[in-house]
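Limitations

Structures in this collection are predictions, not experimental determinations, and the ligand pose is part of the prediction. Treat each record accordingly. The example that follows, with S-adenosylmethionine as the small molecule, is included so readers can see exactly what is and is not provided: the inputs are given verbatim, and the output is the predicted complex.
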Amino acid sequence: MPGRTQAALYAEIDLELSWSEEELPQTERTKHVHSLHPYLGKFIPQLVETFLRRHFRPGDCVFDPFVGSGTTLVEANAFGAHAVGCDVSAFNCLLSRVKTSAYSLGSLELALKGALEEARRSAPADAADAGAWLRSWYSERALGELLAYRAALDGLDRLDRAAADVGRVVLSRAARSARLTTHFDLDLPRVPQRQPYWCHKHRRTCRPVDEAMKFLRRYTADTIRRLREFAALRTPAEVVVLHADARRVELPLRPSGIVTSPPYPGLIDYHEQHRYSYELLGLRDRSADEIGAAARGRSRQSVRAYVEDMVAVLANARAQLPAGAPVIVVVDDSRDLYPEILARSGVGLEARLTRHVNRRTGRRAGEYYEHVLVCRTA
Ligand SMILES: C[S@@+](CC[C@H](N)C(=O)[O-])C[C@H]1O[C@@H](n2cnc3c(N)ncnc32)[C@H](O)[C@@H]1O
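Predicted complex:
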């Protein structure tokens, strides 16, 4: 844009990033595979889209060291760029792979409906051997139905691994909805709710859920619909998801730049929010490797450990990026930690934009601001 200074351009982006609910309704923010499964702490796809268009070209390779629910990878693929990412959470890797894989949709639909039918015929499975956590968070009937579906997926896995993995995401989503919890506390329930309770959300007495099959049916249909929608946008660009620690990961593809949103100290436990999945699917727990985990708190010592960890992540990434590569970091840096982190990892800050975020639902509802750090490798 002739005649415009870099600062004026960034000021313009700044405005564009603070979309109102009317400009960017929830249906757009949660379009196609982006809402395949609930996830606390994702960024919105339109943010990724904006920076891909501004800093990358189709055919480039985008790296996300903190894949989470896979927002960057999905948007990079739709944009026509290759994508590589890692996450220490096995569930997040499963979810991101399922979102970004290419499927033969007819056979996928048949396979998932077959698994559902088999689970319906054999449910409830015997839950006597299930672990104590599962037995405390589900009614006997709901757990028996989830375990019957899990057994059906184990059978499907031998024939079609990719379809079984899609089924595992359906299982996890149904398991989240079928927990013994209140309607207003699905994000982070603390204790199982076994009795009827006064529901603040519905302003009446509600009962905890007693079954899982209705969720399995609903989410099977919704998942197929969402995968079909994304299939229409999907490009042949490659997507690689690694279950690895971002401080040490060695990338199989040479990235052109980064678009990411890192964890922040003391905010979220990323394994714990999907505990039901780890329990049901027997996924490997690497929560000890989580950077900034909420369980470690926000003490001075935890914040210093966070800074060291983030320097390690960005220095490791920088060593695998070309000089001058774009690095876009979306983070609520209220402690102003990033100037030090970036300087020590050899990444130069070009602009620090502020985005107004308006969360509408959940216990963490309310308004807040996040930052978009537009940087370049030295
Ligand atoms: C803010 S979330 C990313 C959300 C993502 N942008 C999305 O839209 O879904 C941060 C992620 O970093 C992951 N993480 C934490 N420590 C990590 C580490 N050492 N290596 C790789 N990933 C890590 C967490 O598991 C979590 O998924």
